[in-house]
Amino acid sequence: MARLTSRFWVDAYLARLRFADIPGFVVAHGDDTGGAVLIKLNTLDGRAALFQRSFDLMADTRVWAELAGGDEPEVDAAITRQRGFDPDIWVIEVEDRQGRHLLDQDGLA
User: Fold this and answer.
1) DSSP secondary-structure letter at 40?
2) How far apart are the C-alpha atoms of 84 and 69, rounded to whole Å?
3) What are phi and psi of 49, to 5 degrees?
4) Which residues contact 74 (CB under 8 A, 6 or more apart)?
5) In the structure, what pLDDT confidence band is assigned to residue 46 with cuts at 50, 70 and 90?
6) Which residue of 6, 62, 91, 94 sits 20 to 30 Å from the alpha carbon of 15, by its own alpha carbon?
7) Is 99:20 a contact under the CB 8 Å cutoff?
8) 39: domain CATH number?
9) CA-CA distance, 53 to 81, in Å (whole number)?
10) Is pLDDT larger for residue 2 or for residue 87?
11) How far apart are CA 103 and CA 5, in angstroms?
12) What DSSP character marks residue 16?
């Protein structure tokens, strides 16, 4: 099966957010073809969560797992650490008071 490039996935994700009237933007531009993608969900109340796509060995699927959560500065520190390990990572920030990120929808899950 062919894999989508990171850039294509990010562009499609941002378009899906726009259709749902959820603000989302690129904080860090990673490698266009193979960079991993981190999604920061900012609920605009000082709290945030960070999601990363990972492989679930038990279910043999890819899932969006919460990498960090809590006060926004703590999540930002986790992003900084991840970017220190891998400078090719994309970081997308989603701002939604209701906590919507759409990562559980068909085509994104």
Assistant:
1) E
2) 19
3) -140, 150
4) 68
5) very high
6) 62
7) no
8) 3.40.1530.20
9) 17
10) 87
11) 17
12) H
